[in-house]
Amino acid sequence: MPPRRVITGRSQEPRKRFAEELRLLRTERGESLRKLGEVLGWDWSLFGKMESGQTLGSPEVVQALDQHYGTPGLLLALWELAVGDPTQFKEQYRRYMVLEAEAVNLWHFGVSTVHGLLQTEGYAYEVLALGGAKGQELDQQVEARTGRRELLEGEDAPPLRALLAEAVLRTPLRDEAVWRKQLEYLMEVSGRPNITLQVLPQGVGLHGLASTDVMFLRLLDGKTVAYTENAHRGELIEENSSVERLQRAYDAMRDLALSPAESRKFILRMLEEVPCEPST
């Protein structure tokens, strides 16, 4: 597979960036719009309209393009930004989404919810609905979020180490069946070679990230950036000393967390506590 693609230095307006990337990927392969349509099975005029910014296409089309170009999750991340009202996305979050798609290594700590890259469809629906999305808008946001999981799939997928505060696993969804599927999915992904999942027990007490979710992204140039979130805001942090301070807090928690094997056992215990669906 091709190396992870750097896309910085281009248009900062989400729709324009998305269209620009589509055109560049196709022209770099030397494909015509008609040839692209034949290969993927859609009318070639759709791709022309997407490249000119007249339409964004559907998540299904964008996922097919990501697969075709060997850019797992990149185009879908750009699409997710483009489908929303630009005023809803702060520049820092737009930049974070692009950097996430470029990252060669990821470290995450979740104090409140399961990270989007590890969410099932049902979990994503409940979380995003809490933000006010509904109807078609909610459907699109969920498709985009779950589609981003492709970043962690395939031979060139970056490694992810995810620390989950115990409280995340003790905060179930309203629908027990959906919650069970989320726990089962965590069990599944924790067995992948590129994903390390650890649980931070409540008994460790207060720590340096007690009220903050954080994702660290290691980029191709060796630089590491951090994106922090709390209940009210998110912030992209690129200044070295600030990132290093957060990393020290993260490393301290990693040393206190359960081992990957112990964490899998913990999740399994949580799973066993969820009532099974009655047999018919």
Report on this model:
With 280 residues, the protein is an alpha/beta fold. The chain has 2 domains: 12-89, lambda repressor-like DNA-binding domains (434 Repressor (Amino-terminal Domain)), CATH 1.10.260; 103-280, no CATH class. The chain is built from 12 helices and 6 strands. The chain has a 6-stranded mixed sheet, sandwiched between helices. A hairpin with a 5-residue loop joins strand 4 (213-218) and strand 5 (224-229). Helix 4 (59-69) runs antiparallel to helix 5. The radius of gyration is 19 Å and the shape is globular.
What topology emerges from the helices and strands here?
Layout: H1 14-29, H2 33-40, H3 44-52, H4 59-69, H5 74-83, H6 91-102, E1 105-110, H7 121-130, H8 135-147, E2 160-165, H9 166-169, H10 176-189, E3 195-200, E4 213-218, E5 224-229, E6 234-237, H11 240-256, H12 260-272
Parallel strand pairs: 1-2, 2-3
Antiparallel strand pairs: 1-4, 4-5, 5-6
Helix pairs in contact: 1-3, 1-5, 2-3, 4-5, 5-6, 5-8, 7-8, 10-12
InterPro entries: Cro/C1-type_HTH, DUF5753, Lambda_DNA-bd_dom_sf
Organism: Streptomyces glomeratus
Pfam family, one: HTH_31
